[in-house]
Amino acid sequence: MMEKNKLAKIKILKNGPYLVTGNVPLAERIIVPKGKMYEYKNGREFPQAEEYALCRCGQAKNAPFCDGSHEKVGFIGEEKASRETFEDRADMFEGPALNLLDDNRCALARFCHRKDGNVWELTEYSDNPNYRAEAIIAASECPAGRLVAYDKTGKPIEPKYEPAIDILQDSEKEVSGPIFVKGAIPIESSDGFTYEIRNRVTLCRCGKSRNSPFCDATHISIKFLDKGKE
Fold this sequence. Notes:
The chain is built from six helices and 15 strands. The protein is an alpha+beta fold. The chain has two domains: 2-33 and 40-82 and 166-221, CATH 3.40.5.90; 86-157, no CATH class. The strands form four sheets. It has a five-stranded mixed beta sheet, with no helix packed on it. A four-stranded mixed beta sheet has the order 5-2-1-14. A four-stranded antiparallel beta sheet has the order 6-7-10-11. The longest helix has 12 residues, at 129-140. It is globular and about 55 Å long.
């Protein structure tokens, strides 16, 4: 698996798709409510390949794959996101037994909500072992990587992910969600810059994010449905 880590890569093509190389597994996952919380269910099965291109403009008729629609619609895929590191961007919320870093890059996936409260409330009362454990889950299940729990030694607490990509759908909001990139896959900008390598990020695929290439939850406000779901 270490070899796959070295090979896996996402290259953002100028005004075009995300080119994925390195035999990265691709799946569809559907966000569904479970009481006051959320979970994933399996969606469509996709063909697996050593290399594939994922739509970034939101117009492909063969979503999630690119079909050249970006050229037909004149898609402008300007990358606007900050290139600072997560720790430099994030605000810290200090709890008694846990700290939480929050960089506000929200995909509105809502996994930060748990049965006993949201991740900020749970961090505030993390001297309670149950709330501490729930806060860690709430932070770790955030696909955007907006939220990271840190222990009091300053060590981040992260789930163990192998390199993989999930195409998200949101059943409750009735929209198609972002591209969930897991397992420290390098993402290279169209100008050659490599973004900070992270365990969890979400990439925009509706074509309308104001923080591209990353998701900013615009897919919800515009009620984005990929062509594979219409």
